[in-house]
Write a structure and sequence with these properties.
about 400 residues, alpha+beta, 2 domains, about 10% strand, globular
Length: about 400
């Protein structure tokens, strides 16, 4: 998904879930920041590098693809953008090497999604925003895995299924590999990653072979994924994105209540239904990004002007905070929540017997070991425990 959904649509969903306008803005900001919190961004503010939630193309280009490099990439992309749907999936006559990758395929309504939303309960609006980004991406990025893998993420046979007055027209998608070429909706011409049969090439990370098609809300298409033995699979983005929106409203109501446990495959369609036609019109509109339409809806719902996303908005607050107080700023809380999410997902992958994301420990029971950045997380966890007892 793009800024249109992660920032503007999340703002709308937060309002429908009952949050005040100020909290809606912070939730939406955190949701969008997940796509931008790279090591380059964190270095600018001297934050904890382990709290990265994405990797820039330039960073990936320099990233090693040895064992530790793959583990680092997987921790980021599986934790925040391609949440695994079933870490214990089983296929007959497949070896462990293959299954370790297959089990990272992103899908909706997995147990890790419930873990993600419920984990955000103690993290404030920043953690809520991170969880909403991850939830939304399970719908957009389903069927791809957040680890470089040719045998999983290679795909072909892309056709748009375009609704016309005469029914559904099947139109072949034309791909090129020039990263500076703009996608052309009318010509059905898009940019994707060059095919690389090297298993661990970063070109085989996530939905690179599908280009930006999974991130366009209007796009309904069929394709042939490698993990499915190149059999045809249909992806209906407008329908999926609407369900994602309804699920976000439900999830944020759970978080706002402070008590209600989030359950998978549950959607607050009742709250959203008065706006269904308007939302579906936005989702089906043939455009590369729907910022203005979602912004207009957000301002209509709240009666308040919605400022555009500003990446550096909270930077000064973090930089000017004294040592020991940075964790109380917006970015500080975002970093802690990101560390918690990455730690949780990595630990779940490790405990499933899969080492593709590396070794992991449970900081809540075993204390601090390893990456210095995670000491911040442990200290916040201890403070939270003390607050609960007081």
């Amino acid at each position: 998904m793009q800024e249109d959904f992660h920032y503007y649509a999340t703002y709308c969903a937060a309002w429908l879930a009952g949050y005040e306008v100020s909290d809606c803005s912070r939730i939406a900001y955190a949701a969008q920041l997940v796509d931008l919190c790279s090591k380059t961004f964190i270095n600018r503010f001297h934050g904890p590098r382990a709290a990265t939630t994405t990797q820039l193309k330039t960073e990936l280009a320099d990233a090693p693809t040895d064992i530790t490099g793959i583990q680092d990439i997987t921790r980021v992309w599986a934790s925040f953008h391609f949440l695994p749907g079933n870490l214990y999936a089983h296929l007959p006559k497949r070896n462990r090497y293959y299954m370790n990758r297959y089990r990272l395929i992103c899908d909706v309504n997995g147990t890790l999604l419930a873990d993600t939303v419920n984990l955000a309960r103690k993290g404030g609006v920043e953690a809520c925003g991170i969880a909403m980004h991850i939830l939304a991406d399970t719908w957009a990025h389903r069927y791809f895995a957040g680890t470089p893998s040719f045998v999983i993420n290679d795909a072909g046979g892309f056709y748009e299924l375009r609704e016309t007055e005469n029914g559904v027209e099947r139109i072949k998608v034309n791909f090129n590999h020039n990263p500076i070429t703009a996608d052309n909706i009318e010509k059905c011409s898009f940019t994707n990653c060059l095919k690389q049969d090297s298993e661990t090439s970063v070109m085989n990370l996530g939905h690179g072979r599908a280009g930006s098609l999974p991130d366009y809300s209007f796009f309904k298409y069929e394709f042939q994924p490698a993990w499915g033995d190149y059999r045809i699979l249909v992806k209906d983005n407008p329908s999926d994105y609407y369900r994602a929106f309804c699920q976000m409203v439900y999830a944020m109501k759970c978080l706002r209540s402070g008590e209600q446990e989030f359950e998978t495959d549950t959607y607050d369609e009742e709250t959203v239904s008065p706006y269904r036609e308007e939302i579906m019109a936005i989702l089906k509109k043939r455009q590369l990004i729907a910022n203005e339409d979602w912004k207009a809806l957000g301002e209509k719902l709240t009666g308040t002007a919605l400022e555009d996303f500003d990446l550096l908005k909270y930077g000064d607050e973090y930089m000017e905070a004294e040592k020991g107080h940075k964790e109380k700023t917006f970015l500080g809380r975002f970093f802690v929540a990101a560390l918690a999410q990455k730690s949780m997902v990595t630990n779940k992958i490790f405990r499933s017997g899969n080492l593709i994301a590396g070794f992991s420990i449970d900081y809540g029971t075993n204390g601090f070991r390893g990456i210095e950045d995670f000491r911040m997380l442990l200290e916040e966890m201890k403070k939270g425990a003390m607050d609960d007892q007081s």
